[in-house]
Amino acid sequence: QVQLVESGGGLVQAGGSLRLSCAASGNIFSINIMGWYRQAPGKQRELVATITRGGTTNYADSVKGRFTISRDNVRNTVYLRMNSLKPEDTGVYYCNAEPPRNYWGKGTLVTVSS
Question: Which of 35, 40, 80, 101 is a good FRET partner for 89, with 20 to 30 A between their CA atoms?
């Protein structure tokens, strides 16, 4: 089993910044891809960004140029730096890790006020 614990969410004004962290523990040796997904009220969960163990990144078009995902393989932690936040970035942000299966954290709420 793998446990994922997110932190760093909160309330911020539009144009502000936040940094999310996700610490992984447990049977982490098989984990390759870690990432962030988000779910806005009334919407489906969507990909925000992912990063492989080797550092290859992937971003949703809506966050390119504003968000940066990074990873510390020694601390087994993945980060999401979010700049120029918009109200439409509001949602619960979930950490994800795989394989051999999809593991999820409980989420951290990000609220961007206009």
Answer: 101
Contact 93, 78 (CB under 8 A): no
Q: Which three-class secondary structure state does DSSP give residue 96?
A: strand
Contact 99/54 with Cβ under 8 angstroms? no
107: nearest Cα among 54, 45, 50: 45
The per-residue DSSP string of 37-81 comes to: EEE-TTS--EEEEEE-TT--EEE-TTTTTTEEEEEETTTTEEEEE
Contact 108, 7 (CB under 8 A): yes
Q: How many Cα neighbours within 13 Å face the side chain of 83?
A: 6
pLDDT at 28: 87
